Amino acid sequence: MARLAQTAGLTDIQQEILSTVRDFVDKEIIPVATELEHRDEYPQQIVDGLKELGLFGLMIPEEYGGLGESLLTYALCVEEIARGWMSVSGIINTHFIVAYMLKQHGTQEQKDHFLPRMAAGDVRGAFSMSEPGLGSDVSAITSKAVKDGDEYVLNGQKMWLTNGGTSTLVAVLVRSDEGHPEGTAPHKSMTTFLIEKEPGFGEVRPGLTIPGKIDKMGYKGVDTTELIMDGLRLPANRVLGGATGRGFYQMMDGVEVGRVNVAARGCGVAQRAFELGVRYAQQRHTFGKPIAQHQAIQFKLAEMATKVEAAHAMMVNAARKKDSGERNDLEAGMAKYLASEYCKEVVEDAFRIHGGYGFSKEYEIERLYREAPMLLIGEGTAEIQKMIIGRRLLEEYRFQG
């Protein structure tokens, strides 16, 4: 067992789950990840294996057929999966954000209808906030829902939808001015709608089109798409929680879970980069000895390992804070910021250790080098995390003059 990134205080069940996931990653993901990534091929066989392990129901309560595990267990599983191939962890993440939002904010009818099938992996979730003209500025959303009798009509274009093609349930954030007078703050006139659809591309239900996959530098295999709503009609019972105007708060609650997930992904990718770097440093010889015996490389390995350990500790703290029922936006923001930045640095150091071979697609580090930048952007950029952290610190340390 590797010494780095160990987690104290886990139950026997948690340790058994993590051991099972790690074994699956070593046997079923790492051997094929680079080949599938280079082909930009959806990892169907891997996803089927995760379904058999019950991971799609990991955090869903037992009463709905899930395992009822904590956010910490989930984050540690994500860390292991991202160590194998980050794209696979993205497939799980978007699913669980939607499941979490349903568990926390859904009506009883919505929970009964969706959660058992999500736990079984028969319904796959995706969520959508971003649009072509906005990223972090969620208040600038222009997609809109207008009430028409007992239904709502949705129009607009969404962007950067992970699992856009393979998902069958999408939680979409749009403006809904109905019931909210002019001048209402933008975040108080947003609503989350639950859209059921067929998997695939093109028109997946009347009024809803998934144009196709976005070609990306990295984070391949998983389908990232746009979503176009043109007269999409939904019944009122597909408003998450049954009331309009709560969507922004519901999404932000889900994003806190997502930020812990991104931190866990950063930890997993950084761990794999360290593993590759420390192994190569012991195999590659220069000037008559392994490069690991050169002080410059030992310094680099020391820095990499310290960053892996620090990021893991902050990620675990953020997950445990959320599990305790406490507000964790400060801890989640810090963990996401630190883990993604350290991931980039550890991957680059491992890349440098590989020398010219790091630039070859035959070596796994080349794939990690293209994957790490996505973590700097996903679930809020570093600048957004700093804003969140700064504001929360001023709340906690308000000067009483």
How would you summarize what this structure contains?
This protein is α+β, with helices and mostly antiparallel strands and 401 residues long. The chain has helices spanning 12-39, 44-53, 71-84, 86-105, 108-119, 247-283, 295-323, 329-353, 364-375, 382-396; strands at 125-128, 144-148, 151-162, 169-175, 190-196, 202-205, 208-210, 224-235, 285-286, 289-290.
Would you write up a description of this structure?
The protein has 401 residues and is of the alpha+beta class. Helices cover 50% and strands 14% of the residues. The protein has 10 helices and 10 strands. The protein has helices at 12-39, 44-53, 71-84, 86-105, 108-119, 247-283, 295-323, 329-353, 364-375, 382-396; strands at residues 125-128, 144-148, 151-162, 169-175, 190-196, 202-205, 208-210, 224-235, 285-286, 289-290. The strands form 3 sheets. The chain has a 5-stranded antiparallel β-sheet, with helices on one face. A hairpin with a 2-residue loop joins strand 2 and strand 3. Helix 3 (71-84) crosses helix 6 and helix 6 packs antiparallel against helix 9. The longest helix has 37 residues, at 247-283. It is globular and about 80 Å long. The model has no long low-confidence stretch (mean pLDDT 93).
